[in-house]
Design brief:
Blueprint: H1 26-40, E1 45-46, H2 47-53, H3 61-72, E2 76-79, E3 86-89, H4 91-98, H5 105-115, H6 119-128, H7 135-145, H8 155-168, E4 181-182, E5 191-192, E6 199-202, E7 214-219, E8 225-228, E9 235-236, E10 240-242, H9 251-260, E11 268-276, E12 279-287, H10 291-323
Antiparallel strand pairs: 1-3, 2-3, 4-5, 6-7, 6-10, 7-8, 8-9, 11-12
Helix pairs in contact: 2-3, 4-5
Length: 326
């Protein structure tokens, strides 16, 4: 038709997004952690400040990727959101950086643990361990056969990073991955789930939440939540990873926790939230409860009921007095 124009449809090709992987290898990440420590020691720093320690501006994509890499290795933990977000070195990072003992096995083990902390590293290690295929075959697998395929522009950089990291960490076939613990009493090196007495770090979305590892005091009956010393809130087992026992904790303290909170005597905190027009009511209680404790709880709830009724009936009177200037 005369005078008509045909709209050109842009050629929008969907870009393959690679699985998350560290921007830098572990040796470089530890160097960045040391730079952070030289400036901040054990203190937290705003994300924009942390980036300047590595020579980046606060809007640098390389700076953000560096923070993500250190976080994925378990070297950096975060707190806060948005412009208020801060980061600090984890206890594992400090133990690696400050352990000056020659041939320290603890330091070597922590480096291995850091190397296998990124999820993609775990997956490759579980599949091939030390028997990696050639770069060409590994590239082909990651591009075409991996559950979430890599982008062809990123895959070569990842392969270099992964090889450099496992070489630096001196990983061997006997090194294991994940939040399971070798069961010394099991057969053929069997693994067992996390259990009471284990020291763990809680890392939702890869961000460490504890300044130093905490000990599991109980596990939910279905095995999906773990409870740590000093908290009544269950933490998802999948977000907990085994850590070395803190050097500040004595063996007697460890035995005390395990004895008091053994699986046979575990106490689990239950919670119920009830929604009302005015807001929500939350109640928590430990279980199991003795019959005496149940009766005490019933008596206490009656007292709470009287307090609630009294406060509700008194509210209009107080408001009336305020209107009259009393």
């Amino acid at each position: 038709m005369a005078g008509a124009t045909v709209a050109q449809t842009p050629d929008k090709r969907k870009r393959t997004r690679s699985p998350a992987y560290p921007f830098i290898n572990l040796e470089t990440a530890l160097g960045r952690a040391k730079q952070f420590y030289d400036k901040e020691q054990r203190n937290a720093a705003n994300v924009s400040v942390a980036m300047t320690h590595w020579g980046y501006t606060n809007d640098s994509s390389n700076g953000a990727q560096t923070i993500a890499a250190l976080t994925s290795y378990g070297l950096l933990g975060g707190e806060g959101m948005g412009n208020q977000r801060k980061v600090r070195l984890t206890q594992n990072a400090l133990r690696i950086l400050l352990d000056a003992r020659p041939d320290s096995k603890e330091r070597a083990d922590l480096i291995k643990q850091a190397a296998l902390s990124p999820k993609i590293h775990q997956q490759l290690w579980e599949k091939w361990s030390t028997a990696l295929p050639s770069d060409a075959q590994l590239r082909h697998t990651l591009l075409f056969d991996w559950p979430v395929p890599f982008n062809d522009k990123a895959v070569d950089g990842f392969i270099r990073e992964y090889r450099d990291t496992i070489s630096f960490a001196k990983l061997t076939e006997s090194d294991k991955v994940g939040s399971e613990v070798e069961d010394k009493g099991g057969q053929n090196g069997a693994k067992r789930p996390l259990q009471v007495g284990d020291w763990v770090q809680w890392s939702p979305k890869g961000i460490d939440q504890f300044q130093e590892p905490k000990q599991i005091t109980s596990v939910s009956h279905e095995g999906t939540y773990g409870f740590v010393d000093g908290s009544g809130t269950g933490l998802p087992i999948g977000e907990l990873t085994v850590q070395p026992k803190p050097a500040t904790v004595s063996e007697s303290r460890t035995r005390e926790v395990v004895t008091l909170r053994s699986p046979e005597k575990q106490t689990i905190m239950r919670q119920d939230i009830f929604s009302l027009t005015e807001g929500t009511v939350t109640i928590q209680w430990p279980t199991p409860l003795s019959s005496e404790s149940i009766q005490d709880l019933k008596d206490w709830l009656k007292i709470v009921e009287r307090k609630i009724t009294r406060s509700t009936s008194e509210a209009p009177k107080d408001e009336g007095k305020a209107r009259m200037g009393c």
